Structure formats: C-alpha cells, structure tokens
Input
Amino acid sequence: MLGPGKADLLQQIRETGSISAAGRAMGMSYKRAWSLVEEMNAAFREPLVQSARGGASGGGAQLTAMGEAVLVGYRRIEEIAAEAAGAEIAALAGFLRDMPGGK
Output
C-alpha cells in the first residue's frame, strides 16, 4: 500500500504541485507516477492525491488532507524505525562498497 518510493512520490507531488514533475524528479515516467497515484488512491479510504487536468487552467496535483496525514504518519514511522535500529543500520552500511562521490 505504501513504501518509501510511494512516500517519496507523495512528497514530490506536495513540493512540485504536479504528478508529471514529481515523476521526472524521481526519474520515472508520467505513466508510472500516475499508476502509483492510482494504486494509492484506491488503497486508502479516501484519495491521497487530487489532480486537475492541464489546459487553460494549467492543471496540477495536490495532496488531500488524507494524503498529508498518511505522508506525515509514514515519515514518523521512518524516524522511529531509524532511531530503534540505528546500530543495525550502521552495521549494514559498513558492508557497502565505497562508491564514487561518497554515495
């Protein structure tokens, strides 16, 4: 229903006001971004994203009140998990190869 990628997509929609721009920012097609939005809207009791078609009025997208609540709740769960598993996350990070650019 919701994972890190979908949460990031919601955040990008909040920041850009556009499903298309959010998808581009994440390196995905509009079709993929729209598909993920449809999945999330169908999974929750109320839609998370409200969109308007482009044209003379410009279109766009925004998070609904439910979308905001779900994103805030998900980010809080991430914070709690990171705090609780800090040592384990650090241990796993120690197994990673050194990447160019420090990534």
